[in-house]
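[READ THE FOLD]
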Amino acid sequence: QVQLVESGGGLVQAGGSLRLSCVASGSISSIDQMAWYRQIPGQQRELVASITTSITSGGRTYYSDAVKGRFTISRDIDKNTVYLQMSSLNVEDTAVYYCYAQSTYRGDYGRGTQVTVSS
């Protein structure tokens, strides 16, 4: 099992930036891919960005159309940490952001961090 702890959420004005961090612990060697999801109350959780995490994978990334060009996902293998740099934030980005780790046989979510963008 993998444990995930997110940090970096908060309140920011529209047009501003935030960087989210996710530290993984536990069965880290089994992780194939990590991602950030977000969820607005009453809506389904949606994939924001993902990155492959094995040393040989080259850190391939994916972004949803909603964040492409504004958000950047990155990884620090030595620190077991994945980041989500968010820029040009708008009110539609307000949500709880969850870190996710996909391992060989299971997926795990963190508890989430709230991001609120004010107009």
